[in-house]
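[Automated response] Your request has been received and processed.

Submitted sequence:
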Amino acid sequence: MNDTLPSLTDYPPNGTIFDQLDAHGVTWKDYYTDLATTELYPPLYLKNVGSKVVPIAGFFTDAAAGTLPGYCLVEANYSTQSEENPQNIAIGEAFAASVINAVIHGPAWDKTLLVWTYDEHGGYYDHVPPPAAVAPDSIAPQVPSGQSAYDGFARLGFRVPFALVSPPPRLACGVRPHQHPQAGRDQVEPARADLPGRERERAARHAGLPQAVVRRAAGARPAGRGHEPRRAGLQRQRPRHDPAGRLGH
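Generated structure:
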């Protein structure tokens, strides 16, 4: 993982996800509480502050009016609401509930998908070892002198809670833990043109990775029991590997 903060003049060569949204005419906003993720790249922040980077109160106003943009990032207070040790996680859960309820009770609920996820696993142990992955490119992680880069970006991170909140879709699926590509990476992901699916698949096969990873590299849905969407309606169940019950029922 690479937690190195970018310098004031750094900027991803292919832009950020927000630049890609602008390029394709998709509206977006970053609703922040104390810190906006877009501040990681000052040019991005300064270009959009006040118009697309706005305080959290604007989210609840827009949700109630049914005017949320095509994509929005809703950010908690990272000092008190991020559910990190030693915070009171009930405060963070209350924030998440307020966001979810605002969307559910808004007039645009029938055409909204809310993705509720965490950027870290929130604990000190996971009994499932992170599996190997296909590195997105040949760029090695930057680590402090004397520290190991381990497998670089060729390994998935620890599992994190992940849920999709939306009206019942045509093909509903149960909530399962989500494997974070590189746990701890910045929320502003640089947009990059990955290798075509066939090339990624060949690279994965050449590396001798498991079949599920090969399929994932090619852009296919992983095979096997538990990966196909359920067709009998929305399944409200606890994830198989969620002993703490953080996602509820």
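Summary generated for your ticket: The two ends are 32 Å apart (CA to CA). Residues 16 and 188 are 6 Å apart (CA to CA).
If you did not submit this request, please reply to this message.
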